[in-house]
Amino acid sequence: MNILKSLWILVMIGFVAGCAPMATESPFTATDLSGKLAQGYKQKVDNAVIILDASSSMYDKENSNQKFVEAKNVVLHMNDTLPPLKMQAGLHVFGPTLGANMEDSKLIYGMTAYKAADLAAAVKSVEVSGLTPLAKPLLKSVTDLKDSKGPIAVIVVSDGIDTYNQSPVEAAETLKNAFGDRICIYTILIGNSPVGKKTLEDVAAAGKCGFATTQSAVATSQGMADFVEKVFLEKEAEKPVAQKVAPAPVQEKTITMNLKVLFDFDKDNVLPREQDELDEFAAFMKAHPQTTAVLEGHTDNYGSEAYNNALSLRRAESVRKYLVQKFAIAPTRLTTKGYGFSRPLATNKTDEGRQENRRVVAVISTNVKE
To answer: Is the pTM here over 0.90, yes or no?
Structure first.
C-alpha cells in the first residue's frame, strides 16, 4: 500500500511538472554597449516602438520552446543590451484583448522616456491569446508617433502567420509614408514558418531602410549586440583635420509636413477645431511655394460604397477650398482624391475608430538648404 502511494505521488509530481508554465526569461548575459558611446559611436534613434505578437499562434511550440516565451525573451534581451539612450520608447502588443475597450492592439507602455526597468515590467505583464491583426499596430503607430521628433525605429517581434484581415505589408507602407525617411522598420521572426518569414521580410522591406532577421540570429549575446548596434547606434564621422579648404557646397535636407483633418459623421464641412491644423499646414506651403499636395479624403463604413466615395471626395474638396480661399494657396498646387472607406486607419467597430477614419490627410515634403 505504501509502495502504491509512493508511486502515485511520483506520477502526480511528474504530471504537475509537465504542466507547469515555461519560464518567462531564459539565461542571458548581455553585452555592455555603453562604452560604444565613448568610442566614436552616437545614438541614431530618438524614438523606438516595439511591436510584440501575443496572439494565440504564439502559444505553439517549435523546437520544444513556446514561441511566445521566445518572443518575450527577445524583447527582454534587447532591453538588457540597450545602452542608456535618451529616447522615447513604447511597447505595442497585439493579439489578446486589452483594457476596458477590449482592444486587440494597444500601446501598453509609452510613448515615454525610455527606462529599462519599466519596459521590462511591461513585457513581463503580457499574456498570450487572440487573433493576429499585425496590420493594426503598424497603422496605430501613425497615431502613437504623431508627436515624435527625430529618427524612429519600429521593431516587430512575431511569427508572421495568420495575420488576419488586413495586409500588414500595406500597413507598413502607410506607416512609412506617414514619416518618410525618419522611420525604419525591423522584424524578428519567431519560429520557422516560411510564410511568416516572407511576411516579415516584406514588412521590413516596406520601411526601405530596416531589415529582417530571426530569433536564432539574435539568441546569443553577440547576435543581440550586433542587432542593437545596427538599429540604435552609428559611427560618428571622423572630424576633419583643421586646414584651409574651399567652402563646402550648400547641403539640402528634406523636411516633411503632415496634415490630418477630422470630420463629423456624414459631414464635409471643416470644423473650427481643425483650423489650427490647417493654419499650420498652409503656413508650411506658403513658406515653400514649390511644394504641392494631394488631399486624400476618407470615411467610416456607414452607408454604401458609392455614397462614401463621393463623401470622401467632398471632404477633400472642402479642405482644398479652405486653403485656397483663406490663404490664397494656388489651386494648381492642391489635388484631391476620395477613397471612401477603403483605407481605414482604425477599427470601424467603435465610435473612436470611426472618428479616426472620417478624415482628410496629406503629406508634403520639400528640400531646403541647411
So the answer is: no
